[in-house]
Amino acid sequence: MAESFETHNPIPIEAQLCRQYSVSRSVLREAVKMLTAKGLLGSRPRLGTWVQPEKDWNLLDPDLLGWLLERKFSPALLIEFTELRISIRTTNRYKGVKFASVAAPASSASTNANR
User: Fold this and answer.
1) What's the number of domains the chain is made of?
2) Residue span of the structural domain in which 71 resides
3) For residue 5, is it within any domain?
4) Helices (H) and strands (E) in the chain — how many of each?
């Protein structure tokens, strides 16, 4: 799709999309269901279906990551991935230090008990 769809500009109705892409309603509904589960689409009865803002997308979904990386380079996306990576590394380091400090006294106690 080359058009731009947002909350104030919902995507066309099912019948129109089925004709446009030559697919059955069940195929279209499954596609909408999958894209909604990934956070790309939102829908409400009588309001239609729209593309969610990028900030609401599940950026940890492997399919979505692949699609995003196929697009034109985005400095904003690169910054978000870098921030996420730093956050995960910091959290893992904290957990490692916390685990090591909890495990160290226990291993010392078992060593003393074996003597």
Assistant:
1) 1
2) 14-113
3) no
4) 4, 2
Reading the chain (115 residues) residue by residue, the pLDDT tens digits are 445 665 567 888 889 999 999 999 999 999 999 998 888 898 888 888 888 888 888 877 888 888 877 877 778 777 877 888 888 888 777 666 666 666 666 555 555 555 5
SS3 56: helix
Q: How many residues are listed for the chain in this entry?
A: 115
Please give the C-alpha separations between residue 29 and each of 23, 48, 57, 83, in angstroms, as whole numbers. 10, 13, 19, 35
| Residue 69 covered by a domain | yes
Q: Is residue 49 part of a domain?
A: yes
Cα-atom radius of gyration of the chain, to the nearest Å? Answer: 24
In whole angstroms, what is the distance from residue 17 CA to residue 35 CA? 15
Evaluate if pTM is beyond 0.70: no
